[in-house]
Amino acid sequence: MRPLSNKRNDMKLAFLPIISATLFSCSLLSACSNELADKTASTVSLKQAYKNSFLIGTAIGNAQLMHPQAVTTKLIEQEFNAATPENDMKWERIHPLPGQYDFAAADKFVEFAQKNNIFMTGHTLLWHSQAPDWIFEDENGQEVSREVLLGRLKDHIDTVVGRYKGRVQSWDVVNEALNEDGTMRQSKWYKIIGEDMIEKAFEYAHAADPEAELNYNDYNLNNPQKRLGVLRIVKQLQAKGLRIDGVGMQGHYSLFHPDFKEVEDSIIAYAETGVKVMFTEVDISVLIFPEGAEAGADVNQNFALQEKLNPYSKGLSPEAEAALDKRYTDLFEIFLRHEKDISRVTFWGTDDGMTWRNNWPMVGRSDYPLLFDRQSKAKSAYYKILALKQ
Predict the structure, then answer these.
(1) 307 burial type by CB count under 10 A (0-12 exposed, 13-18 middle, 19+ buried)
(2) pLDDT band at 363 (very low <50, low <70, confident <90, very high)
(3) How far apart are CA 290 and CA 271, in angstroms?
(4) What integer best gives the mean pLDDT of the chain?
(5) Of 58, 42, 75, whose CA–CA distance to 375 is shortest?
(6) Of the candidates 247, 222, 248, the residue with the CA atom closest to the CA atom of residue 346
(7) Looking at residue 55, what is its pLDDT?
(8) Cβ atoms within 10 A of the Cβ of 264, count?
(9) pLDDT tens digits for 104-113?
């Protein structure tokens, strides 16, 4: 995560018109989009177009699971063959209190995915965030021992993974355990358990379901220093004979960050270890970060709303839409160059109305990071990506 200076923000604001000017080949963006849509419109969906390349996934939120909207259900069934529950398998949702599990939403997720032949990824078993305080404390509020915490971790994994054994095909076992320089995050998990925290989580997950795919998941994995940290984790697990199947690159990008060459370099580096690469939480923000914010996906960042940094509250401008089209096209061209090493590309949300980007790191902003708009209609970026497979 790297702070964005005022100078960089000013450069980006100035850069948008330049981007748009280079992208227009028709007199109006809407005309370009309509022309492209006419050329590409058919019964072909993303999952069909990319069926010989990699799975195409979406994150499904609690509201859709518990109160399904027909238009969203239809869109998921039509376009996606992989899915991840956005929050409902995270510890605070599924195991909020000692000895108490809430499987209602997770069960609905699994039921829906099985009914529609959708590849499932459970998310996530060990994460420093959205973890209730009781996990790390005894009845007196004192920090528990390593042995107690390992016992709680094993019980949680045995219970959750065991419940869905043979149904949930893939698990994000450990999420966001690294700092940006590739060192271990000083989370409560790490401070209490120690260096083998990750090894134990993978060991327990494999024992709970020996057939399930097991992955390490994190953001900013294009960062060269963080990349080295992930490579260290993968090689340590492999050296100890522990199963690790993939590295999940979250893919929370923007029009300005990161340099996609770094993304491509990371794909190559992770694949060379023998694991699959997955893009697990893809979205591309059209907005500029506030001063002092850090790129990536640190959910603890929270800034007061600034209207000047919310320029598309009434709708996306043609210039920004053209820049988004270009950014998605560039990214998917990289994916296709390395399709033999990529098993899945999952978007973090289904349409722009249900993306976390609308509220992070500023509550109330209007962002447009996905392929479908707030009415669940395909945007021009969707057709650009389809066109790559025509």
Answers:
(1) exposed
(2) confident
(3) 34
(4) 89
(5) 75
(6) 248
(7) 98
(8) 17
(9) 999 999 999 9
Distance CA(208)–CA(230), nearest Å, equals 24
Cβ distance 56 to 80 under 8 Å? Answer: yes
* Whole-angstrom distance, CA of residue 80 vs CA of residue 117: 10
- Candidates 134, 137, 229; CA nearest to 182 is 229
Apex CA 275: angle with CA 271 and CA 279, to 5°?
75
For tokens 């790390």, name the residue: 136
Q: State the first-to-last Cα distance of the chain, in angstroms, to the nearest integer.
A: 36
Give the model confidence (pLDDT) of 30-48 as tens digits. 444 444 444 444 569 999 9
For the chain, give the secondary structure using H, E and C. Answer: CCECCHHHHHHHHHHHHHHHHHHCCCCCHHHHHHHHHHHHCCCCCHHHHCCCCCEEEEEECHHHHHCCCHHHHHHHHHHCCEEEECCCCCHHHHCCECCECCCHHHHHHHHHHHHCCCEEEEEEEEECCCCCHHHHECCCCCECCHHHHHHHHHHHHHHHHHHCCCCCCEEEEEECCECCCCCECCCHHHHHHCCCHHHHHHHHHHHHCCCCEEEEEECCCCCHHHHHHHHHHHHHHHHCCCCCCEEEECCEEECCCCCHHHHHHHHHHHHCCCCEEEEEEEEEECCCCCCCCECCCCCCCCECCCHHHCCCCCCCCHHHHHHHHHHHHHHHHHHHHCCCCEEEEEECCCCHHHCHHHHCCECCCCCCCCCECCCCCECHHHHHHHHCCC
Domains annotated for the chain, with CATH where assigned, are 6-21+47-387 (3.20.20.80)
Q: Pull the structure tokens for residue 361.
A: 């790191």
Distance CA 360, CA 280 (A): 18
pLDDT of residue 310: 86
162-210 pLDDT, tens digit per residue, is 999 999 999 999 999 999 999 999 999 999 999 999 999 999 999 999 9
Which single residue is written with the structure tokens 């929370």? 252
| 116-126 residue pLDDT tens | 999 999 999 99
- pTM for the structure as a whole: 0.87
- Which residues are catalytically annotated? 176, 281
pLDDT band at 82 (very low <50, low <70, confident <90, very high): very high
The amino acid at residue 156 is H
- With beta carbons less than 8 A apart as the criterion, state whether 310 and 362 touch: yes
